[in-house]
Amino acid sequence: MADICRTCKLNAKREYWHMLPVTKNFFKVMLGNFERELRIPREFVANFGGRLSGSFTLRGPSRNEWKVKVRREEEDVLFSRGWDRFVSDHGIDIHDFLVFSYVGDSTFEVMVFDHTGCEREGTHFTNVNLSDSSCRCTLHAEENDNESDFGMSGESNNVVENVGDDNDYDVNNDDDYDDKEEDDDDEEAEEDLEESFSYARHPGTSVKKAQKCYISSRRTVTERERERARNISDDYVKRYKSTGVPVVGVVMLPTHVYKGLYLTIPKDWALKYMITRDHQVELKVGGEHNFWLVGCRWTHGGQCQFRPRWAEFVLDNNLEEGDVCVFELVQKGNLKANRRPVFNVRIFRVVQEVVPLTPVRMV
């Protein structure tokens, strides 16, 4: 390959930064404490002549947008306030590879690649966090109706919990919701539902964003089988009380595992044991090295919910309606100490034979 002279290099640099169209790109590998702040390359900052200040819009692969503040630290400019939400909502992990494209109007378009070198598929279905909550499939608007029906139908034991007090067995149905919280959740659902039908702004296209949901492929199950799973999990929770470790069990609803794909933690339990700010939790199944990082969100209605990457946990563990997940809080979180909560998760299945869920594309 022929050498390029210094003059040509300087001319190419000037042409690129000052003569070519506005779109400029840089990439970052997620290392260190990337979840809190991210430094923009100095070369990139230098060629923008101080225009990188204030706040910016980060547009994800879903075409939704997140507002992020930048701050200066001597010669560096860093994505700061709001960056942690972008990271958590997109399930960005260490060693992920992000490509930032500046497209003008204080906006970066961002692509997310994982350790395999391929795009993270879920980032194309991540919705802007409108109300301190986020999920990949906005069809979760039906969650409120479904949970209400579940509680009124007589199957009120959709949650079993042990909070380490004198109660051997606590059944919690719809007591987590008051009228005000239901109104707040309804507003969030309506806003997210509107997002699900917004048009993707790819050049030259007018195609609605597709939302992925799932249907069960397992055989028909009986009420006796459902009751058996609940009873076994109930017995486990009662026995676990003696360890002193906080534990809560939740029966999976359709909106937890088929559409919507988020999980609400019982309110009283969450207020007592969970960090009351948005954060990540570590869910372990069957061993130290088999874990998932899942985003935990608090809604305006005061609900604590597992949302970002909960869908991955559901799919990887083949969860189905009626299965019971028992969450054992083996390590409490501390944001100041940069320590996330850790749960051991026990799964009590309605049917032991596992059949993967079938994806359905909803438009």
TrEMBL record:
<dbReference type="Pfam" id="PF02362">
    <property type="entry name" value="B3"/>
</dbReference>
<keyword id="KW-0539">Nucleus</keyword>
<dbReference type="GO" id="GO:0005634">
    <property type="term" value="C:nucleus"/>
</dbReference>
<keyword id="KW-0238">DNA-binding</keyword>
<feature type="region of interest" description="Disordered">
    <location>
        <begin position="145"/>
        <end position="204"/>
    </location>
</feature>
<protein>
    <recommendedName>
        <fullName>TF-B3 domain-containing protein</fullName>
    </recommendedName>
</protein>
<dbReference type="InterPro" id="IPR003340">
    <property type="entry name" value="B3_DNA-bd"/>
</dbReference>
<feature type="compositionally biased region" description="Acidic residues">
    <location>
        <begin position="163"/>
        <end position="195"/>
    </location>
</feature>
<keyword id="KW-0804">Transcription</keyword>
<feature type="domain" description="TF-B3">
    <location>
        <begin position="248"/>
        <end position="351"/>
    </location>
</feature>
<feature type="domain" description="TF-B3">
    <location>
        <begin position="23"/>
        <end position="116"/>
    </location>
</feature>
<dbReference type="InterPro" id="IPR015300">
    <property type="entry name" value="DNA-bd_pseudobarrel_sf"/>
</dbReference>
<dbReference type="GO" id="GO:0003677">
    <property type="term" value="F:DNA binding"/>
</dbReference>
<keyword id="KW-0805">Transcription regulation</keyword>
<dbReference type="InterPro" id="IPR044837">
    <property type="entry name" value="REM16-like"/>
</dbReference>
